[in-house]
Design goal:
This protein is mainly beta. It contains no helices and 13 strands. Helix content is 0%, strand content 52%. This is FHA domain-containing protein.
């Protein structure tokens, strides 16, 4: 029996544009539980909230990107899940299916600007802040 602590990292995502009606989200990211960033959909019962990574934006894929931490809980990574409109970190495109490190304070962009009829749908631009690290009770592995 091996006892190891569960490490979680609090990540605050601040909206940088009008691509997300929720201006600030705070989520907990744990070593063994990555989070999927994706489009909210009332038809599927997936509701955007200040404490989740579901975004009410039509240019984001249902499962757009995956955010995870390394085994030490010190670095954050983002992986594009072969999304239709892509993922950028600090203005640089993440390859479809590719993964990169995300520094605290970096700029994340999900999707691209899309014109529909006479309207424009903006991408979602967010800025993550890796806030605090928490160690919970020991879990048995």
């Amino acid at each position: 029996m091996n006892l190891t602590p569960t490490t979680t990292l609090q990540v605050k995502l601040t909206a940088l544009n009008d691509g997300d009606p929720i201006r600030e989200r705070t989520v907990r990211l744990s070593v063994d539980d990555p989070l999927t960033i994706g489009r909210a959909s009332s038809n599927r019962g997936v509701v955007a909230s200040h404490d989740n990574t579901k975004i009410d934006n039509k240019v984001i894929s249902k499962e757009h990107a995956l955010i995870r931490t390394d085994t030490a809980g010190e670095r954050v990574f983002i992986k594009d899940l072969k999304s239709m409109h892509g993922t950028k970190v600090d203005g640089v495109v993440v390859a479809r299916g590719g993964e990169v490190i995300v520094a605290s304070g970096a700029s994340l962009e999900f999707g691209v600007s899309v014109i529909r009829g006479s309207g424009r749908l903006p991408p979602n631009s967010s800025q993550p802040q890796h806030c605090t690290q928490h160690h919970s009770d020991f879990h048995v592995h």
